[in-house]
Amino acid sequence: MNLFRTLLFAPGNHPRKVEKSLLLGADVVIFDLEDAVAASEKNTTRAVVVEALTRPRNSKAYVRVNATDTEFCFDDIQAVVSDGLYGIVLPKVDVPSQLWAIDWLITQLERARGFPEGQIDLIPIIETGKGLANVEQIAHTSRRARRLSFGAGDFSLDMGMNWTIEESELDYARAKIATASRAARLEAPLDTVFIHLGVIEDLRLSAQRARNHGFQGKLCIHPEQIGPVNEVFSPTAEEVALAQKYVDEFDDAEAQGSASLQVDGYFIDYPIVEKARRTLAVARAIEEVGS
Length: 291
What we know:
By secondary structure, this protein is an alpha/beta fold. It is 46% helix and 14% strand. The chain has helices spanning 15-21, 42-52, 73-80, 96-113, 129-133, 135-139, 152-159, 171-183, 200-212, 226-232, 237-255, 270-289, and strands spanning 6-11, 28-32, 60-64, 87-90, 121-126, 149-150, 190-191, 217-220, 261-263, 266-268. An 8-stranded parallel β-sheet has the order 6-5-4-3-2-1-8-7. Strands 9-10 form a two-stranded antiparallel sheet. α2 (42-52) packs parallel to α3 and α11 crosses α12.
């Protein structure tokens, strides 16, 4: 099972930050060619990112390319489809055709460069009103896209919303993205960044809200966010122990012909035990990576 609790952005035009980001304990590092890089530096930054993909790391490496309606997107993808790339993050996906076109391009590059077809992951970001309106269709577009992500910065700008620290205005978007993901049988989605630094308790609350909406992880913009977000999206020791108890007692009951039982006054049936099995799977994956 792959973990996507924390996905840390690293500005591609800062080689030292790129190098350090690979060993900070995030599940994923996203080398950024989009918002963090000035237009005048985008072409030269690609080489920095490609070199970084060859470095030792304890995180999966993705690259956020520029949006499909820019002059940079095609060359970004041409450059970064190389050894060491786990996947591409595609911003501002508004319609299914954008995702389909990028999937096609990656497939051609995989064939031309001798990579297994479908090896490179693709994460679309939903960050406009149009993208949210079309999210159900987007979610069904590409087999390469195994999970969606949410970008509240551009979304709140596009919608003319006030992005408050409490984030209640994001509830509808989060719920719609999570529902579309489930309907398309994708993995749980990835939540937006939290732009306030130094307020760890508010960061935890943001991550908890996303988790409660059915998200599996959160985009991060600073190393200080990795630990708290990893913690929120990791089951506690108590949750793991309870999940194991539910599974063990349910398996015993099922072997005797019963598919429901009470454990400590709590009703257990197939949906509850399936959730417990998922908790145990996440716990095993965390134990394997040691964080």
